[in-house]
Design brief:
Elements: H1 4-16, H2 24-45, H3 56-71, H4 87-104, H5 108-117, H6 121-128, H7 140-143, H8 149-159, H9 163-181, H10 190-208
Helix pairs in contact: 1-2, 1-4, 1-9, 2-10, 3-4, 3-8, 3-10, 4-9, 4-10, 5-6, 6-9, 8-9
């Protein structure tokens, strides 16, 4: 197993922020990551999926982002001064985008190769490394060309956040995701990592369909 579920759990808890309470432990015990992810999706999105039945990740993202940016406006502690989502909320919003991007590259190895091809070899080596210390940082402009601009614009519109904030969130999530998917460095089982990505996306999809 990789550490992907641990990172997703941390991001979900951060997104819940003020809504975290002592009972969250019991929720976690009942469903582990599923319980926590179910809670954050339910609280951020109100549990409705509406007309996002296109299928595939597009439908999942439409549901997540539409709920984050639209139906739960009353949750003011999760919103910025201008009504946009806060940074921690954006982290969970861009999580499916990052995971889907990795899948589009053919899995973790393809994603690593793509990132290195973008001039991020030193950062990727650091993220994959099992050594101590924080993950090397990456700048928004270094990842902009990796993601579809139209998709980013949709995220920005639905979360009421500037596009640069979306890219900034991606730069925070991407290193953590790569790190979590390579717990044994280069020796990590790549198929296992790819399976874990699919499992998390399936989990997100499953909760949104409830």
């Amino acid at each position: 197993m990789t550490n992907l579920s641990n990172i997703v759990e941390i991001l979900a808890k951060q997104a819940m922020g003020h809504q975290a309470n002592p009972s969250s432990n019991s929720s976690q015990a009942q469903g582990g990551l599923g319980g926590i992810l179910g809670s954050v999706l339910g609280q951020l999105g109100g549990g409705s999926t509406q007309n996002n039945q296109q299928g595939g990740l597009g439908g999942i993202l439409g549901s997540v982002l539409g709920q984050l940016g639209g139906s739960n406006q009353q949750a003011s502690p999760n919103m910025g001064a201008k009504g946009g989502s806060t940074g921690k909320t954006l982290l969970i919003a861009v999580l499916p985008i990052v995971l889907a991007w990795i899948q589009k590259q053919g899995g973790i190895q393809g994603a690593l190769d793509k990132l290195k091809g973008q001039g991020l070899s030193s950062q990727v080596d650091d993220w994959v490394s099992t050594g101590p210390g924080d993950n090397a940082s990456v700048q928004p402009q270094q990842v902009q060309s990796l993601f579809d601009d139209q998709e980013i614009e949709q995220v920005a519109a639905q979360t009421q956040a500037p596009k640069n904030d979306i890219y900034q969130a991606i730069t925070q999530v991407l290193p953590e995701i790569i790190d979590s998917l390579t717990p044994s460095g280069e020796k990590t089982n790549k198929q296992e990592a790819n399976d874990d990505i699919q499992n998390v996306l399936n989990m997100v999809s499953g909760f949104l369909k409830k």
